[in-house]
Amino acid sequence: MRFRHPDGTTVHLAYCTNVHPAETLDGVLAQLRDHCEPVRRRLGRDRLGIGLWLAKDAAHALVTDPSALRALRTELDRRGLEVVTLNGFPYQGFGAEEVKYRVYRPDWADPERLDHTTALARVLAGLLPDDVTEGSVSTLPLAWRTDLPPHPSPAGPSPTGPLPADREESGRKALVTLAERLDALAELTGRSIRVGLEPEPGCVVETTRDAIAPLTAIAHDRIGICVDTCHLATSFEDPHTALDALTSADIPVVKSQLSAALHAEHPHLPEVRAALAAFDEPRFLHQTRTATAAGLRGTDDLGEALRGDSLPDASPWRAHFHVPLHAAPAAPLTSTLPVLKAALARLVGGPRPLTRHLEVETYTWQALPPELRPRGRSQLADGIAAELALARDLLTDLGLKELP
Predict the structure, then answer these.
(1) What is 135-191 written as a DSSP string?
(2) Could you tell me where the DSSP H helices lie in 44-96?
(3) Three-state DSSP class for 357?
(4) Picking from 13-27, 141-155, 315-329, which range would have the lowest pLDDT averaged per residue?
(5) Which one, of 256, 283, 184, 212, lies nearest residue 16 by Cα?
(6) Under a CB-based contact definition with an 8 Å cutoff, are residues 64 and 123 in contact?
């Protein structure tokens, strides 16, 4: 979906396909048929933006076979779909029964992360619509804050100790190399691909504030930040303060993922804890945070927060659980949709947009409590379309005009 900003530029809105697990190119093509096109039809649009998630094997197939890349581009056009952004955070296995800490491997100290992201940039340059010259890729914010086993066990890894300083430095050097490769790609193709670190609770770059120092050191306009509004809210960051600081530091907002976290206003109450426990599921990591007088406190997962007194409960809790934008959980819980709205107003509601790539990213539909999960493809498509409709209305309320 495209929108005209009052300054005349085009703002793109998509939804991220990591909600539809697929590890291979055949799986990606099936996504377009079974999910993406039905969402477009529900919205009554001739064209729908999607933020593709391409796992390692799918990306490799596309970057090594020009005919496969052309075929994917043709299939996108045929189904009324377009791609200006990719989700490059998960590397593989995002549809596994248990993901947890695995999503942070390989990190930016591992050459595989640089090679994979380079491949994604090359693929995106070939997928951009003919009238679009700028693409974006979101990526892991350097690494998880502690060192993880190189080969996670089936039971899921647990942190083993502080992340060595040399690994952080290796990650920053890899991003400098990536910037050089993106420059070369732009010269070769005429397409400018930018990559944004996506701050996430528990990572080396947990907040937008944490991103300023490493990105200032890199000092390249093709390497910036991806603002995920669920992560922003989980860390209790004020959207205006965060985005003003990024602007003052000349850190480009490459893209923003529109998402909402789980909010519990009174976590000390037994009924609130019972409601939260329904969201404690085994597949994804749900980092949980609370703001105290001594600063931010947190746990790596929601279950850990609910056990005993590991997290203070005198103030609200927020958990990294991407809840559907249009359907906040029932009382006594709610979502951080107000944070999303405030961030969006700052991102695109001013005289000039801070970013032109927006992506709805609710990948946790099938991780919701059983009674809230969609039953089959049709209900899932209905839900995704409803999220996009809400985002569309927020944009038009800010003065943007929806384009055909």
Answers:
(1) EEEEE--S-BSEE--SS--TT-----EEPPHHHHHHHHHHHHHHHHHHHHHHHHHS-
(2) 56-64, 66-78
(3) strand
(4) 141-155
(5) 256
(6) no
Q: Look at the pTM and tell me if it is higher than 0.85.
A: yes
Query: What's 336's DSSP letter?
Result: -
> CA 130, CA 399: separation in Å to the nearest integer?
26
Beta-carbon contacts of 171 under 8 Å, excluding residues fewer than 6 positions away, are 107, 108, 109, 142, 143, 204
Q: b/e for 213-229, b at 16 or more Cβ within 10 A?
A: ebbeebebebbbbbbbb
Helices H / strands E in the chain, number of each: 13, 17
**Residues forming a β-bridge with 228:** 257
Cis omega (within 30 of 0) for bond into 90: no
What does 367-399 look like in DSSP terms, one character per residue? GS-GGGS--SHHHHHHHHHHHHHHHHHHHHHTT
Nearest Cα to Cα of residue 357 among 50, 43, 6, 39? 50
- Give the span between the Cα atoms of 115 and 131, in whole angstroms: 28
* Amino acid at residue number 324: P
- Residues 98 and 282: their CA atoms lie apart, in Å, by 6
3-class SS shares of the chain: helix, strand, coil, % to 5? 40, 20, 35
Residue 239: asked if its preceding bond is cis (omega within 30°), the reply is no
DSSP 203: B
- State how far the Cα of 317 lies from the Cα of 353, in Å rounded to an integer: 31
pLDDT tens per residue, range 99-129 = 999 999 999 999 999 999 999 999 999 999 9
Please give the torsion angle defined by the CA atoms of residues 105, 111, 116 and 117, in that order, rounded to the nearest 10 degrees.
Answer: 100
Per-residue model confidence as pLDDT tens digits over 203-258: 999 999 999 999 999 999 999 999 999 999 999 999 999 999 999 999 999 999 99
* DSSP single-letter state for residue 33: I
- Amino acid at the residue 290: T
Question: Would you call 83 helix, strand, or coil by DSSP?
Answer: strand
Count of CB atoms situated within 10 Å of the CB of 49: 24
CA 323 to CA 264: how far, in whole Å?
13
67: which 2 tokens? 């005919």
Residue count of the chain, please give it. Answer: 404
Q: Looking at residue 148, what is its pLDDT?
A: 86
